[in-house]
Specification:
With about 375 residues, this protein is α+β, with helices and mostly antiparallel strands. The protein has helices spanning about 10-25, 30-40, 45-60, 65-75, 95-105, 110-125, 135-140, 140-145, 155-165, 175-180, 185-195, 200-215, 215-230, 235-240, 245-250, 250-255, and strands at about 265-270, 275-280, 280-290, 295-310, 315-325, 330-340, 350-360, 360-370. The protein has a 5-stranded mixed beta sheet, with no helix packed on it. The two termini are about 35 Å apart.
Length: about 375
């Protein structure tokens, strides 16, 4: 697979240079491209976009109106396209919007109306979710007032921008500390978008709520209860995705919103079937569940692997397993394997680790196993 950073490529730099020279008299295309290409290959994706934006800033007119006019003329005439559609001789779109958006957010903070009008056009050709954030950070009320009417815009990309651009903890994006502390200003926007006809928008609403849940779990649980009332399948899917972290954490109010009550069960396990696990192989375990309730009960079963850290302590990681319904007195036996192999997000340490279960938010059991690292001392 080609490296992700190559979406911002030398070919894109030349394409951008070709469009600037069309619309800006006196533009030194050779100097523009040389300054960028000399450094581009050494940089990662976001750094590449920032470099292009920096050099563009040096070559574009100082006057904001003239600068924005050039950027607008560079935009591809085709809108409503997939994000990965490339820029070409007709205009810039897709990944090419990343450096162009950085130019707008870098110079336009003194003119919200002009900047948001241009960012709205840019987002039709990819996304401006990162570029609206400096405006929100500096003048939240002003920015939200401009964006609020966009919830009914004809463009799916513009509607999504309302939700995605205002996420409190958008990955890769500037953290919006005011909205982290108080998310209430964006709730009416999410309310307006929750039944959007496009899954692309609804998924953004779900991710926005998941952001909020990290700081205000009870608030998201309240929203879940309200939105699940008379919900169609699309809204139910949205709410489930929005509450995925809270469900994993066993947040009781959220579980109750989905009809998951404290479990009435007898648990036998975890029963470890591979007490010594070679690094790169699989941990095996099983569980026996017996219902002690007087009525059928819905159960969500997750398992936790308590991985050893560098300091010797254990840190649990929750993994989803299954959902089931137990009749009164019913017993079920379930088995599972969990492969312990190299991944980029975790460093493994040999020695004693453990497994436990989380059922409808309640934790059960704790059984240890040994992880053996190949050619390494524990």
């Amino acid at each position: 697979m080609e490296p992700f950073k190559n979406n911002i490529s030398p070919e894109l730099v030349r394409c951008i240079g070709g469009h600037i020279v069309r619309h800006l008299d006196g533009f030194n295309r050779r100097a523009f491209e040389t300054d960028i290409l000399a450094e581009l290959e050494t940089l990662e994706l976001k750094q590449r976009a920032a470099l292009i934006a920096k050099v563009m800033d040096q070559h574009l007119p100082d006057d904001l109106g003239q600068r924005f006019a050039v950027l607008r003329k560079m935009l591809h005439p085709m809108t409503e396209v997939a994000f990965d559609r490339g820029s070409d001789e007709h205009g810039i779109r897709g990944w090419g919007m990343m450096p162009l958006g950085m130019v707008v957010s870098g110079c336009g903070l003194n003119d919200y109306e002009a900047s948001f009008a241009l960012l709205k056009e840019m987002t039709r050709r990819a996304t401006a979710e990162f570029d609206v954030r400096p405006f929100l950070d500096m003048g939240q009320d002003k920015a939200l007032a401009i964006m609020a009417p966009w919830v009914t815009d004809d463009s799916v990309h513009v509607r999504r921008l309302v939700s995605e651009g205002t996420r409190p903890r958008l990955p890769w994006g500037l953290r919006l500390k005011k909205l982290v502390a108080d998310p209430s200003p964006t709730l009416p926007l999410l309310e307006a978008l929750k039944d959007d006809p496009e899954d692309y928008v609804r998924r953004s609403v779900a991710n926005h709520l998941n952001d909020i849940a990290k700081d205000h779990p009870d608030l998201v649980a309240e929203i879940a209860v309200r939105w699940l009332k008379d919900a169609d399948k699309n809204r139910e899917k949205l709410v489930r995705h929005a509450c995925r972290s809270l469900v994993k954490q066993g947040h009781s109010a959220t579980l109750a919103a989905f009809g998951l009550n404290p479990p009435e069960i007898q648990v036998d396990g975890p029963l470890i079937t591979t007490e010594k696990v070679e690094y790169g192989s699989a941990l095996g375990f099983r569980i026996d569940l017996t219902s002690t309730g007087k009525a059928p009960q819905e159960l969500v079963l997750d398992y936790l692997v308590h991985f050893k850290k560098a300091n010797g302590s254990l840190a649990p990681k929750v993994f989803k397993w299954t959902k089931l319904t137990l009749a009164p007195g019913e017993t079920v036996s379930l088995a599972r394997e969990h492969t312990i192999k190299p991944i980029t997000t975790r460093v493994y340490y040999g020695g004693t680790q453990a497994v436990s279960f989380r059922i409808n938010g309640r934790d059960f059991g704790f059984s240890e196993f040994e992880l053996v690292m190949a050619d390494a001392e524990d």
